[in-house]
């Protein structure tokens, strides 16, 4: 990569950690217990990259026959089961993540997480993986009024890095994350997870790579 960056912004779910498969498994396994019919892998995939608020709003619309009380309970139970799995250390870092973080630390390039997830979940994953010291800060869904694709979370990450948008690079896997970075004027590299890049992602991304191993090599050049 010809351009050098002074700060790197990491998405979390599906980019830094292999969490999307866990979310999918938890939701699809528990949905039938609450009368929620049709919550399968295909349904989950249609909502990848959305904030919890957007996802829950979809539940109340798409599964109205289950009733609000059942959906409310389903949401709380899925949170609890997800947290249990996170606390148990059942989530892997994505391939190349630790090596990339090591390289950036050696180069004295500050890193920050900008995730639409809850802060407590981010803290658990970062702690369990032993990578807390690699990040100067974390921006979570609780720090912003508007979730991705709104650029607010990326703008806050840039501000906390103490840099200009043009000096930062964001690593993302979802269309909403790409839109957020693009809207904030931050270059973005896409590392696909469950979904392959669509034409909009191809157009807006600086590059699309296979894994964080490729990002490490890209930033070395």
TrEMBL record:
Name assigned to this protein: HAD family hydrolase
Organism in which the protein naturally occurs: Vagococcus fessus
Signal peptide, first to last residue: none
InterPro entries documented for this protein: HAD-like_sf, HAD-SF_hydro_IA, HAD_2, HAD_sf, PGP-like_dom2
